[in-house]
Design a protein that fits this description.
single chain, 566 residues, alpha/beta, Arc Repressor Mutant, Double Stranded RNA Binding Domain, 18 helices
Length: 566
């Protein structure tokens, strides 16, 4: 890189505006949408779409709600020409959909374009020529007047050829290509000259498209350019101002949104930002940005995954996992603090209330995404995310201190392996840590009976695989069992929950126990169709986990006492 880039690159000159208004505007409705996936998007592919793929894309665009679709550059290739003919001859264009085709301002290409549209019910003919100084000087060798004459000649021919096919409802669009690098006064002059040829009316408007053919400045400067044109173009009430942002500076979304504030009525772009070089503006992101502001975009992305897979299949381009709204990871949180906030948000979110789940600007369900990947666990995750997954996937609502305790074990596992832990792997670890701890004490069966003001219990266990029976009394089965064990256990916390619905529903019991031989209180978990059995299993889970943390000699002494206490 140059130490002094100013020696090679010049800054973009700002528009001299002292009374710009777009900064105080708010977007209140969607623009007119034009998908150019089949033209600009297709010409940017290493392998252009086949007819079958283009038809699949076209039908999907119609289903999504696009009513203006740029389908081809028919004079550029026989494939494009044939596709336009196929759509028309097979009557595949719905009555409320208008196809658009692109042509350069050359007589032979314009005539070829109209030949492709023979028999169309309605069509937009989109003509362009480059207008910036470098193109006038270097590419075409034309001055301002020569460039205007080129555009006017093309516009005149288009009007003539359209008149020769009166059965088609024609609309016209002109683009001063490389608009962003064109002097504004000249851009106005050439657009006015073209419009003067076409003579639009308030009921039959001409589209003036202002393309950021190459994005050359910040979005606010593009907005200034658009507002200047919006305020100075002749016959503004008979025009639709369209924008066609590219993403060379990575700001196409912002440029398109600010352009709408500045007076643009229409936006051209591609699904997921396909297109030449860095791509066109992403119409999905634009639309869903509106949706998250409470404005229906007029496009239906209820099944965003299906749309994404179709686009990937047709373009052979993968969608980045971090792509807004549709990427595989955009509704995913790994960070522990994020996970905790999301979990709490879901817990309080009401179905008929305004959406207020932290870190999720959009309810994944609104675009057909499941909650399956909202929270995922890696080395950066915390107790909130772990608890969320166990609750969502397995119905386990963990007490807070158990969340903390189990998350420490998960963290150790992640630090050791360094890989993401799936929900299934998380459950397996939970089972291993709390539900499958059957040594040294394993539950076999129990019998209980109510006495006067107390409950008696007899529990058969395996102690290191040898059967023993313990008996005890207390103010309930848990208290009686704790008494039978004779370990001076203290219960700090106990709760029970149902895991499933119905008569055969399983119950889960959580118990936090302290004892003199345990350095800290410890949790146990039990799951069973019988809540008493689940509670006893939870006690044994905690006891076994505690015993594993003491020296072998001390463990032996404790268990010997248990074996002889009864």
């Amino acid at each position: 890189m140059l130490q002094n880039p100013a020696a090679k690159y010049r800054p973009f000159p700002p528009v001299q505006f002292v009374d710009r208004t777009w900064v105080n505007q708010t977007i209140t409705h969607p623009p007119i949408w034009l998908s150019t996936d089949l033209r600009d998007g297709n010409q940017a592919l290493i392998e252009p779409m086949s007819v079958e793929q283009k038809l699949q894309m076209f039908q999907m665009l119609v289903k999504l709600g696009f009513r203006e679709i740029e389908v081809a550059f028919p004079a550029a290739s026989q494939t494009d020409f044939d596709f336009v003919r196929y759509l028309i001859e097979q009557d595949l264009i719905p009555a409320d959909v208008t196809i658009q085709v692109l042509t350069q301002a050359r007589e032979d290409l314009i005539r070829r374009t109209f030949a492709s549209l023979q028999g169309a019910k309605q069509a937009i003919v989109h003509v362009y020529n480059a207008t910036s100084p470098v193109f006038r000087r270097v590419v075409f060798g034309l001055d301002r007047l020569g460039t205007i004459n080129l555009a006017v000649t093309a516009a005149t021919l288009i009007k003539q050829l359209a008149a020769e096919q009166p059965d088609t409802h024609w609309r016209f669009q002109y683009s001063p290509e490389t608009f962003t690098a064109t002097e504004l006064d000249f851009a106005k002059d050439i657009c006015d000259a073209v419009v003067d040829v076409w003579q639009p009316t308030p009921d039959a408007k001409v589209i003036i498209n202002l393309p950021a053919t190459v994005e050359v400045a910040t979005p606010n400067m593009f907005a200034d350019q658009v507002e200047w044109m919006h305020r100075h173009l002749a016959q503004r009430d008979r025009l639709i101002i369209s924008v066609h942002p590219h993403n060379d500076r990575g700001c196409a979304i912002a440029a398109a949104e600010l352009a709408q504030l500045a007076g643009a009525d229409r936006v051209e772009g591609c699904l997921f930002g396909n297109g030449e070089r860095t791509g066109n503006v992403d119409l999905v992101t634009l639309a869903l940005n509106l949706y998250t502001q409470g404005i229906h975009p007029g496009l239906d992305f209820s099944q965003i995954n299906d749309v994404a897979r179709t686009v990937e299949d047709c373009t052979q381009l993968p969608i980045h996992p971090r792509h807004p709204y549709v990427g595989d990871l955009v509704f995913t949180a790994f960070s522990g603090s994020h996970q905790d906030a999301i979990k709490k948000g879901f817990a309080t979110q009401k179905a008929d209330a305004l959406w207020e789940v932290p870190y999720l600007p959009l309810d994944p369900a609104d675009v057909g995404r499941s909650y399956e990947s909202v929270v995922r666990v890696n080395s950066q995750s915390g107790k909130g995310g772990i608890a969320f997954l166990l609750e969502r996937e397995w119905g386990l609502v963990l007490p807070r201190r158990l969340q903390i305790e189990f998350s420490q074990g998960v963290q150790q596992m992640m630090d050791a392996h360094g890989k993401e832990m799936t929900a299934k792997e998380l459950w397996q670890l939970f089972e291993q840590e709390y539900l499958q701890v059957a040594t040294p004490l394993k539950y076999v069966e129990h019998h209980s009976s109510e006495l006067v003001e107390v409950e008696a219990i007899a529990v058969t266990l395996h102690l290191n695989h040898q059967p023993i029976t313990l008996t005890g009394q207390g103010n309930g089965p848990i208290d009686a069992f704790v008494s039978a064990l004779g370990m001076n256990l203290r219960i700090h916390h106990y709760e029970e929950r149902s895991l499933e619905q119905g008569s055969d529903a399983k119950a889960v019991a959580f118990i936090e126990i302290a004892a003199d031989f345990m350095p800290t209180p410890i949790y146990g978990v039990g799951i069973h169709t019988n809540i008493v059995t689940a509670s006893l299993l939870a006690v044994l889970s905690a006891v076994n986990r505690g015993l594993k943390r003491v020296p072998e000699a001390q463990q032996h002494s404790i268990l010997q006492h248990v074996a002889t206490v009864n």
